[in-house]
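Continuing the series of single-chain predictions for the mutant panel. This is the parent chain; the variants come on the following pages.
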Amino acid sequence: MPLLSLSLSEAFREPAECVIKVGPDQICVEECYPFLQEVLIECDRSQAAVAKIQFETIRDTDGKWQIQDAGIFEPWAPVVIEAAFGSRTEEIIRGYIREVQAEYPQDRHAVVTVMVQDESIRMDREHICRAWGEENPVTDQVILQEIAGKYGLDLDPECGVGQDGVIANQDETDIVFLRKRAKANGYELIVREGTIYFGPMRLTAQSQARIMVY
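Parent structure:
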């Protein structure tokens, strides 16, 4: 799956700006940008997309740390990372903060690492035991619709129907179960931009060229 779908015309050959938005109101955390060291995003069609955001941080005049005491980067806070090309933006990853780590080496400033995972992380929190189609066999599409609805995810219009007459026992989290159903159908499962794709592998797209980001 290409990371970005932008056509790299002359208008978009300048470096992009990295935009990080955090919280339910998706507030851009521009005040943290001076401390930003690295944003590394990994998108894989076989597993969840993840991002690592790394900051260098110092104490302010009140003795508080600029990043970890700001109350911005908290576990389970929603995050959106975008690449901005002038007035146009392209979403790279949308998800939640999975973990926040802080290191305090003696020979340099403290470093805060924020780990983000795409929206599928919410589907991996609760172990579910359920017999699907035990009384009346169902389709994979029915299973997908019910599980996606629990998390407020829309179905991609290109989703496949999957198998009919499914009788399956779920004894794992929802995302693990859906990945098993995808494998049983020879499908791929991708959660991105508030939608879930459950369907045949899409292998015709070109790989995204490297993009330089400020």
